[in-house]
Every structure is written in structure tokens, then in C-alpha cells.
Design brief:
Strands 3-2-1-4-5 form a 5-stranded mixed beta sheet. It has helices spanning about 45-60, 80-95, 105-115, 120-130, 140-165; strands spanning about 5-10, 15-25, 30-40, 65-70, 100-105. Strand 1 (about 5-10) and strand 2 (about 15-25) form a beta hairpin. The chain is globular. It is of the alpha/beta class and about 170 residues long. Helix 1 (about 45-60) runs parallel beside helix 2, helix 3 packs across helix 5 (about 140-165) and helix 4 packs across helix 5 (about 140-165).
Length: about 170
């Protein structure tokens, strides 16, 4: 059996960045904390600083060992894609500052792992996260997406371990 690992999942955004922290051995998963970091500064560089500082506080408080993020997808608007990439960079830098192992997964793969369909909508992801983590509250879409990527990472790490040892 795998040891429990604490994983922080990140759903980066230039205004709202979701985070979800779980403890998991790849089979059993337990909610630790979740929420959003709302960047309120009017200037974009200062918003990136808020994301970076906010995630540093969350990581310092909850001490995850690993970080998982969604990969950048191609947006119709190039400027939006660039801002999203920079927000992801701020999140990655916060993880690197704490020496976290960092993994990245495509949005389609995360939705497939959580809902069973790569084209699932945000409501379906929220519904499944509430059920999988047995939450008493409805998570925001940003928080649910962050938990989804953390759970996807836990399961992929478990499958990788099984692949290295062979099926028993």
C-alpha cells in the first residue's frame, strides 16, 4: 500500500485561483482544505503577486508535498491565454519556493478522471467533487477544479506505482 501524501491542486486564474488540498494514498482520499485566492489589485503584475503570496501562505499552513496544476489550454483569446500562463507561473513559483514536486495534467484528462467524460462541464465536476470528498458544502467551480486536479494526480501516482511493481 502507498503512503499517504498531501497534495495541493491548483486551478490558476488571473483574478481567482482555486486551491484544494487532499491527503491520499491513491485509493482513499481525504479533504484537508480548499478555497480561492481572489486577486483584487487593479494592475495585473500586482494580481500575480497576490496569487504568489496567497499560495505561499496556504502551502506554509498546510505543508503539502506535491502540487498539481492543469496545463494551459489554447484559448480563443491570445491575451487571456497569456494571462492564464502567467498566473500558472506564479503558482508554480510558489510551489518551487517550498520544494514541492510539481505535476501538470490536461483539462480533458482531469475531467475524464473525475466525471468519466473529457467534455464534462463545471457543474458536473462540482457535483462529483462534493460526492468524492463527502463535502457538506457545494464547492465553488474554482475550488472544485483544484480538487479535481489533486485527485487526478493522486490516482495517476498510484497507477504509476502499480506499473513499476507490476500487478499483484
Amino acid at each position: 500500500m502507498s503512503a499517504q501524501r498531501r497534495i495541493i491542486g491548483i486551478d490558476p486564474g488571473s483574478r481567482i485561483t482555486g486551491y484544494g488540498i487532499i491527503d491520499s494514498d491513491g485509493i482513499r482520499t481525504r479533504w484537508v482544505a480548499g478555497g480561492v485566492i481572489a486577486a483584487r489589485q487593479p494592475e495585473f503584475p500586482q494580481r500575480l503577486g497576490e496569487i504568489f503570496s496567497g499560495l505561499k501562505r496556504v502551502v506554509a499552513e498546510h505543508a503539502p508535498e506535491e502540487m498539481a496544476l492543469e496545463e494551459v489550454f489554447m484559448a480563443k483569446n491570445a491575451a487571456s491565454a497569456l494571462k492564464l500562463g502567467q498566473a500558472r507561473g506564479a503558482a508554480i513559483c510558489a510551489g518551487v519556493e517550498f520544494n514541492l514536486t510539481i505535476a501538470q495534467y490536461s483539462t480533458r484528462l482531469v475531467k475524464q478522471a473525475i466525471v468519466g467524460r473529457g467534455g464534462a462541464d463545471k457543474g458536473q465536476v462540482q457535483f462529483m467533487i462534493k460526492r468524492l470528498l463527502q463535502l457538506a458544502h457545494d464547492p465553488s467551480s474554482d475550488e472544485a477544479d483544484a480538487f479535481a486536479v489533486a485527485i487526478t494526480h493522486a490516482h495517476h501516482q498510484r497507477l504509476a506505482q502499480l506499473g513499476n511493481r507490476g500487478w499483484r
